[in-house]
Design a protein that fits this description.
It contains 15 helices and no strands. It starts with a helix and ends with a helix. It has one domain. It has 303 residues and is mainly α. The mean pLDDT is 80.
């Protein structure tokens, strides 16, 4: 244990950010297939999903900060308030999207979040946006358009539009987390869960669950979703918002794969093509950015 702690302390901030975020995304990948397996109404799912965020993340914050948790909540400020409402909106839109289009469509559209985050980071944080990122954004936007067009043909257009909303919300949350990287924003996610549960409770026909849902729903709302979001929301404290979004590509690849393997829901051709374009575009953009960073470091190194 001491050795692991020492190794962790010796990692660079960038390496810590990569480790934390990648672990969170991997935990999140079964999210879509669990939502498909659960037979309860979407509003019922959202009630328990919101309460899961409140319970798990609230408990983690209370343990971490003890009696000082109220000061931490106040310190989140206006940014924390914005993240609270954006998080609630994102949860509502995501569950609606999964139930109104294919899982592949939802996750492919959300995969464009890194490029949206890069553009928003330029507007909000003043971070420089490289020309290659602007080009990549145009290509990814075209790929999202292709995916949405495929959803229109198979009757999933409303779900695709909801996924587009999730993508924009996620990008903005990444940027706000980066802007407030010196503050603990977990309480904002917890209160976002409370708002989600409150809205869903007013719409849900029932909150009772039965059958296999008694296994799948607790697994989703008490482990997969809150734990993954704790880790993912910590990532921007160490990584730029676009890099956090790039790691979300793991869900784009593995999420539909789980659905395909478990439920035999094969992705549509438009989803496969659009997803391939977005993944290739983001990977190329990241690779070029890495080369630029290495060249700058080499230029700054002493002779």
């Amino acid at each position: 244990m001491v050795t692991l702690a020492a190794r962790w302390a010796g990692l660079s901030e960038h390496a810590k950010g990569l480790s934390i975020t990648a672990t969170g995304v991997l935990i999140l990948t079964p999210d879509a297939v669990l939502l498909k397996l659960i037979e309860a109404e979407p509003w019922t799912i959202l009630v328990w999903r919101g309460l899961g965020f409140l319970l798990v993340i609230g408990t983690i914050s209370a343990i971490r900060h003890g009696s000082g948790v109220f000061q931490i909540i106040r310190a989140t400020g206006v940014i924390g308030l914005a993240i609270t409402f954006l998080h609630a909106l994102g949860q509502l839109l995501f569950v609606f999207s999964i139930h109104n289009t294919t899982a592949a469509n939802t996750l492919v559209i959300i995969a464009a979040a890194p490029l949206a985050a890069a553009l928003l980071a330029r507007l909000i944080l003043g971070e420089r946006t490289a020309p290659r990122t602007l080009i990549a954004g145009a290509v990814a936007l075209a790929a999202v358009g292709l995916t949405v067009r495929g959803g229109l043909q198979v009757g999933g257009f409303r779900g695709d539009l909801a996924a587009l909303g999730v993508m924009l919300v996620l990008a903005l949350v990444f940027v706000l987390l980066r802007k407030a990287k010196g503050r603990d924003m977990l309480p904002a996610l917890a209160f976002g869960g409370l708002i989600t549960a409150g809205i869903a409770l007013a719409m849900a026909p029932t909150v009772s669950i039965s059958g296999a849902d008694r296994l799948y729903l607790p697994l989703l709302v008490l482990l997969v979703v809150p734990l993954s979001f704790v880790l993912i929301s910590t990532g921007p404290r160490y990584l730029p918002a676009p890099e956090v979004g790039l790691l979300m590509l793991l869900e784009t690849i593995l999420g539909p794969l789980w659905v395909w393997l478990v439920l035999l829901e094969a992705p549509a051709t438009a989803s496969l093509v659009g997803g391939a374009i977005i993944v290739l575009t983001l990977a190329t953009n990241a690779w070029l950015g890495l080369k630029e960073q290495r060249r700058r470091r080499a230029g700054m190194a002493p002779a």
